[in-house]
Design brief:
Layout (H helix, E strand, L loop, with lengths): L5 E5 L2 H11 L4 E5 L2 E6 L2 E7 L16 E6 L2 H10 L3 E2 L9 E5 L5 E6 L4
Parallel strand pairs: 1-4, 5-8
Antiparallel strand pairs: 2-3, 3-4, 6-7, 7-8
InterPro entries: Anthracycline_SecMetBiosynth, Glyas_Bleomycin-R_OHBP_Dase, Glyas_Fos-R_dOase_dom, VOC_core
Pfam families: Glyoxalase (PF00903)
Protein name: VOC family protein
Length: 117
């Protein structure tokens, strides 16, 4: 078995495109009416539209993820993303050199300085 890709569920594909492409500056490599695919180095991030009014048992309405984006300088990236309107859950990066934020759909992600581990 090998890793395929990360999928995050969103409720508005166009709003997701604006956030992930324009604000987080991820390269968009494929677009469909209900799905976006972004390049994340050697991996892919797939954003898939999930309607909150689907039948019970559709896990897309319950699934939660945390994407961690490695950055060179967490303080600089924090300030840059704040200027673009990103809502952080921390008032500043933690001593562990990370900060969590949400996308427009409530998905929690983090920026973190890469450790030597």
């Amino acid at each position: 078995m090998e890793f395929g890709y990360v999928m995050v569920f969103v409720t508005d594909v166009q709003q997701a495109k604006q956030f992930y492409q324009d604000i987080l500056e991820l390269p968009l490599i494929h677009e469909e009416p209900n799905r976006l695919v972004f390049s994340m180095g050697p991996q892919k991030l797939v954003l898939f539209q999930a309607d909150k009014k689907t039948e019970t048992g559709d896990y897309s309405n319950e699934a939660r993820t945390v994407l961690v984006f490695h950055v060179g300088d967490v303080h600089n990236t924090f300030a840059k993303l704040q200027e673009k309107g990103v809502q952080f859950l921390h008032t500043k990066p933690t001593e562990a050199r990370y900060a969590a934020f949400t996308d427009p759909f409530g998905n929690v992600h983090e920026i973190a300085e890469k450790s030597n581990e």
